[in-house]
Amino acid sequence: MSNALEGLASLRRRRPVLGDVVPVALLLLVGVVWHVREEESSAAGLAFTVALVLPLLWRRRWPVAVFAAIAAIAFAQWLADVAAFGDAALLVALYGVAVTQPRRVALAAAAVVVVGVVLAIPRWDEGNWLRGFIGLSSLAIAAYVLGTSTRTRRALVASLHERAERLERERDQQGQLAAAAERARIARELHDVVAHNVSVMIALSDGASYAVDEDPARAKSAMRTASRTGRQALGELRRLLGVLRDGDREAQFAPQPGLAQLDELLQDVRSAGVPVSYEVTGGPSRPLPAGLELAVFRIVQEALTNTLKHAGPGAEAQVRMLHGHDVLEVEVLDTGKPRPRARADGAAGLRGMRERAAVYDGELDAGPAPEGGWRVHLVLPLEPARLSA
To answer: Which domains does the chain have, with CATH numbers?
Structure first.
C-alpha cells in the first residue's frame, strides 16, 4: 500500500495532470464494476458515482471547493435514497483538504464526513449499525490523519530544504567575506613591500647618479644598498606569490618582520637620504603577538615610504615609540613640505594603515603636524586577553 502511494506521489510530481487523472479513472472503473455486479444497483446510482468522482480531477487546485461540491452531491444522493459506490470520493476529497488546508479547516471537513456517516448508516445498513458506523468513521479518521501527517511531513521537508539553502548561502557569504579579507590583507602586504622597497631603490638610484662623478665610492655603496633592497623585495614577493599559487608551507611560515627589524628598516631609509631618529620609551610588559608587531612595522614602513615620496629634499624624520602598561603608542613625524589631507586620506597606503590598526582595535591619525611636516600617530590597546590569544 505504501509503495503504491509513493509511486502515485512520484507520478504526480513528474506528470501532474496524469497524476490527477489516473486515480479518478481507477475509482470510476471500480465504481462501474461495482454497479454492474450489484443486483440492486440502478442507473441513478451509477450517475451519482460519476458525479461524485469527477470533481476529484480539480481537487489539487481547489481542494475545499471540490470537497464542498462532493459533499453536496452526496447529500442529494441521500435525499434521493440512492446507493452509490462514489461515496468513497468523500474520503479522497477529505484527504486533499487535510493535506493542503489548516488544521481547523480539515477538522471541519472530517466532521462533515462523520455527519454523513451518521445519516447514511440507518438508511443503507440493515445489519449492525454500530459496527458500520465504527468502520466508516475509522476510514474518515484515517483519511484525515493521513492527510495531516502528509502535510506535516511536507512542511518539515520544505523547512529542511529552506534551512539547507540558507546555510549554503551563509557558507558562500562567509567564504566570500573570508576571501575578500584575505585579498585585502595580501593587497596591503604587496603595497607595503613594493611601495617601500621601490621608493628606497629610486632614492638610492637618484643619489648614486648624482654622486657617481664626485664620489664614486658613495655611489657604489648606494647601488649595493639598492641591489640588496631589490633582492629583499623580490624575496618577499616570491613568498606571497608562493602562498597564493601553491600554498607553500615554507612560504607560509617564513618569519614576518617585527619590532626587532625596525632598526634595519630605518637604516634603509637613512641610506636613501632621509635622516631618521628613533626613540623608544619603556619596554613591553609582556610579549607582543607577532601579528601586532607586524602591523606596527608595516605602519612605520608606510609612513617612512610616504616621507621618501612626498617630503621633498632636506626632510628629516622621527620615529617615537612609547610602551605603556596597557597601550602602545607610535609616532612618525617628518619635516617635509605639507601634503593635502584629502589626497593622503584617499591613498591606498593610508587605508592600509588604518585597516591594520583596526584589526587590533587601534586608532590611527594622519595629517599635517602643527609645527609643519606630516604626522602619523598610532595608538594600540594592549588588553591581556588579546595578547594571550
So the answer is: 2-124 (no CATH), 262-389 (3.30.565.10)
